[in-house]
Amino acid sequence: MDSLLAKKIEAGDFIITAEYLPDMNIEATPSDKLKSCGAIAINVSDNPYGPVISSLATAIKLKQAGIEPIYQLVTRDRNRIALQSDILGAASMGIKNILCLSGYHQTLTDMPESANVYDFDSIQLIEVVNKMNKERILLNGAKIKGDFSMYVGAVVNPYLRPLELNIMRLKKKVKAGAKFIQTQAVFNTTDFQEWLDAAYQKGITEKAAIIAGIYPLESYDEAINLLKKHTDFYIPDSHVKRMKEAGDSEAQKKMGIAICVETIGKIKGMKGLSGIHIIAGGRENIISEIIADSGL
To answer: N or C terminus: fewer CB in 10 A for the chain?
Structure first.
């Protein structure tokens, strides 16, 4: 693999990745802050909340700017023809990392009336990319021409219970070909450690790099809205209380960063953890601050 991310993981380095959220500005170019923020690779979100500039186009822009992209691809919006076509397109542009997701249901976006596709789930998509890697063929048997190579990742929610079923699904993603796992946002470090210990005991952490997601809350209202809207956010009451009592909007933003830094401090030495993924949520300017303040 000539992916920088792959090389760092295979060398046993502690990994720092971060997320870039495209918007509707077609003249936008990747910020210099992304290039110097300290992350070795940048995820490009794939229409998580509605239509924005495509993950593929943005990943290409990142690569052209000298930034290693992780191309996110959700199965919500594409059938198997479109999925394979986009993967081939990414490979043709020199993109080497892909994160396979099912994607938020369309009712959680700003276009809830949209039809979903879900021709594949995320595990099946991982299997498809792995087949393209190993056999150089598409699902219809057509041969891929050229040197196809994709480093495959997946996403896991460490808080879903029962734990046994959670670990079973994680094992399926790794067996399908996932080489790195980025988790949903970690706030409750006790439950996260329980999940990570279970993954370690099953030998999963030896087969795939576990990279913990960290999300900087921006305000008390955001924390409440996330808890109401998204079942994958498990924010402790103590965190919500601290955000509320922080003061004005600027003080709340600083508290969100402080909680991030504290969380990183609690988890970065856990056995089986290979890195930190900063889910910036469109606030890429604070990535370097979080990395610096947490000593990463």
So the answer is: N
Backbone angles phi, psi at 35, to 5 degrees: -70, -30
CA atoms of 7 and 81, how far apart (whole Å)? 30
Whether the per-residue pLDDT at 31 is higher than 80: the answer is: no
Q: Is 207 within 8 Å of 171 (Cβ atoms)? A: no
Chain segment 125-173, per-residue pLDDT in tens: 999 999 999 999 999 999 999 999 999 999 999 999 999 999 999 999 9
3-state secondary structure of 106: helix
* DSSP at 205: G
Give the pLDDT mean for 165-190.
97
Q: Helices H, strands E: what count in the chain?
A: 11, 8
The answer to whether the beta carbons of residues 75 and 103 sit under 8 Å apart is: yes
Give phi and psi for 210, each to the nearest 5.
Answer: -95, 120
pLDDT band at 103 (very low <50, low <70, confident <90, very high): confident
CATH architecture designation of domain 4-293: Alpha-Beta Barrel (3.20)
Closest CA to 19 of 91, 93, 97, 87: 97
- Provide CB contacts within 8 A for 241, sequence distance 6+: none
Distance, in Å, from the CA atom of 165 to the CA atom of 285, rounded to the nearest integer, reads: 37
Bridge partner list, 70:
43
Q: So where are the chain's domains? A: 4-293
